[in-house]
Design brief:
T2SS_GspE_N, alpha+beta, about 25% helix, 2 domains, single chain
Length: about 260
């Protein structure tokens, strides 16, 4: 029996609120992960719609999540749509959202198609849960909120998010997002890291937002490499994980 192809896109949005926690031992910075307002999700839907067919629509699922079901779209077509969606979402700016964003906001987009060679519906869902693209919106000015800690009862609430962290000054988060790499890299990104250095450090630049450069790395926990890239580019490095195979395919073409 012939199975009709379809593709599934999963969107997840998380905001990182920086807090200055004041306790008995002084002040320290904490990060609290939040979901955006429904108003932001509606604006995200409006931004994605031009990349879709008239009959296709993005549906919000609870706080900070949305799904897009595309019947009749196989894997190759899904990748093309993914690039169009990414280009649309990348147009968002923290200052032009209504109301303007006060916290760092990360939009992760996962994509899966069925059927694919050796793929089951279960593996489709696992694939769609992974981040294929990530767009980060950062306000130009972020003022940490002051929070007074109550000893033994205070905790920083975190929403349950799969492999989502934001870069923190002074250290790399213990886990990082996983990114499926595109087939090619735009010149506006490759100019930040010479090909010889990218080959040596096993990394490629995959995104830029203001003074933050997103870099896909086989070893995104390598503090030495991240510090070196920070000094080279004079930007904050946001590391994401990737597969060795996809990275090698990009590094095979010199820039």
């Amino acid at each position: 029996m012939q199975v009709s192809p379809f593709s599934l896109f999963v969107f997840h949005v998380v905001q990182a609120e920086r807090l200055v926690a004041r306790g008995p031992k002084g002040e320290r910075e904490e990060i609290r992960y939040l979901h955006p307002s429904s108003g932001f999700m509606h604006q995200l839907e409006d931004k994605v719609q031009p990349a879709l067919r008239k009959e296709d629509h993005l549906f919000t699922q609870g706080e900070g999540s949305a799904i897009l079901f595309l019947p009749g779209v196989e894997q190759r077509g899904a990748y093309s749509i993914l690039e169009r969606i990414y280009a649309q979402v990348d147009l968002l700016e923290a200052e032009t959202v209504i109301p303007p964003l006060k916290n760092e906001t990360h939009i992760l987009i996962g994509c899966g198609s069925y059927p694919a060679q050796g793929e089951t519906r279960e593996s489709l869902l696992r694939q769609a849960e992974q981040s294929a693209r990530c767009v980060s919106l950062r306000p130009r000015i972020v003022t940490p909120s002051l929070h007074t800690m109550v000893p033994s009862t205070y905790s920083t609430r975190q929403v349950p998010i799969r492999r989502v962290n934001v870069p923190v000054q002074g250290g790399t988060p213990p886990t990082t997002p996983f990114l499926r790499l595109p087939a090619t890299l735009p010149q506006r990104l490759t100019r930040f890291i010479p090909h010889s250095l990218a080959h040596e450090l096993h990394c490629v630049p995959v995104g830029k937002d203001q003074r933050v450069l997103t870099v896909a790395m086989v070893d995104p926990q390598n503090r030495e490499h991240i510090d070196y890239l920070t000094q080279l580019t004079h930007m904050t490095i946001f590391p994401v994980a990737c597969t060795q195979e996809e990275l090698d395919m990009l590094l095979a073409t010199k820039w």
